[in-house]
Amino acid sequence: MIWLTRILHLIFGGVFVWAGVVKAMEPMAFLDDIRSFEMLPDPYAGLLAMFLPWLEIFAGLAVITGWFRRGGLLLLNASLLVFLAAILISWYRGIDIRCGCFGSSGGATSNYIELIVRDLFLLALGLWLTFYKPRSSSQGLPTAN
Known about the structure:
Strand content: under 5%
Structural class: mainly alpha
Number of helices: 5
Mean pLDDT: 89
Low-confidence stretches: 139-145
Number of strands: 0
Number of domains: 1
Distance between the termini: 29 Å
Radius of gyration: 18 Å
């Protein structure tokens, strides 16, 4: 089972490294996507556009490598909760957003159900990786005295 958790760490962290790199490569496009949510005024939207991609990259690398893994998982799970809240609020307000989750979507508006399902899936995986404790292979075996 340890190999499965390693693969899942790689996938979960890799999703965020990829998302962060794509955003970092096009910060102005990502800024426009953030502005489409109509939640943060400038300069806060600009600060988020500069900071968030690097947070995703470093937290994703932490999850993949195991260095500060718990901290990386905490940051990414908290980010997913914030993303879900922003998506739900925008949907409730009837705003056509451009997610920008994996790079600029151009003028395309987002499918709210798809975004919510994807983020819930990622959150479920992130929470599982946070709280799953592999059983030791020696559990239940008698110990030699």
